[in-house]
Amino acid sequence: MARLLEGTEQPGALSRALESHADLRGALAALPAAERQSFERRFGPAAVAELLALAGESDARLFFESLLQFGARQEADNRLDLATAIYGLVQAQAEGPLGLRAGQRLDAVLGRGAGGARTEFLLRRLAHEASEPTALFAMGMAGTAFRLTRLATLSRLAATPAGNFLTRGFGARAVASLTGFAVEATVFPLAGRAANEALGRSQDWSA
After folding, report:
1. What is the pLDDT of residues 143-192, one digit of tens each?
2. In Å, how far are 30, 59, 87, 207 from 23, measured between CA atoms?
3. Sign of the CA dihedral with 112 first, then 81, 86, and 196 last
């Protein structure tokens, strides 16, 4: 369970803390506040709390059943890294139908296996992306930036005294559109990151 939260093959701070604590909750509590908060930012407080509760389940079948359901919710919330890690764990360790179900879900996410399951996954992804508020906001801002930039560029070119291919007619429209596309391509990712930041989702601004 610690590796699920850490998201790495190599043991991290949580795994090392677990060696000296009786349970995952105690190990997490022993970490510095910054590291605990990093897990909550990555997965959300509710998901972390649910994993901690699952870690205390002693019935193996109930544990894997609950973990598989938790993985499905992470998939629905677009946390695919965590979902695939959970599916892989359940597939490897659970016996019978549970392991098979986990393998089918894992194959669907990874683009393998039966076409029906894969199609269902892609349709869910399409619905999620189409209704994602940050994407809608970013597209709206980028589209507005394109139109305003194109209009401003056309106005400047039309006001240029020298009339030539680049300042009149098709040439002017092409220059204005290229300028608009350049601004749109810059605004779209920045607007998306700003919207995610406003919603409390940690963003890497270095890229």
Report:
1. 999 999 999 999 888 888 877 777 888 888 899 999 999 999 999 988 88
2. 11, 16, 22, 37
3. negative
Q: Decide if 6 contacts 15 (C-beta within 8 A).
A: yes
Distance CA 8, CA 100 (A): 24
Any idea which residue has 């507005």 for tokens? 144
Which residues, 6 or more positions from 78, have their beta carbon under 8 angstroms from its beta carbon? 128
The token pair that represents 65 in the structure block: 């059943």
Parse the chain into domains and list their residue ranges.
2-129, 132-198
Per-position b or e across 19-29, b if 16+ CB within 10 A of its CB? eeeeebeebbe
Q: What is the pTM of this model?
A: 0.54
Cα separation, 5 vs 74, in Å, equals 13
Could you say which DSSP state residue 205 is in? T
Contact by Cβ (8 Å): 110, 167: no
Does the CA dihedral 115-61-56-20 come out positive or negative?
negative
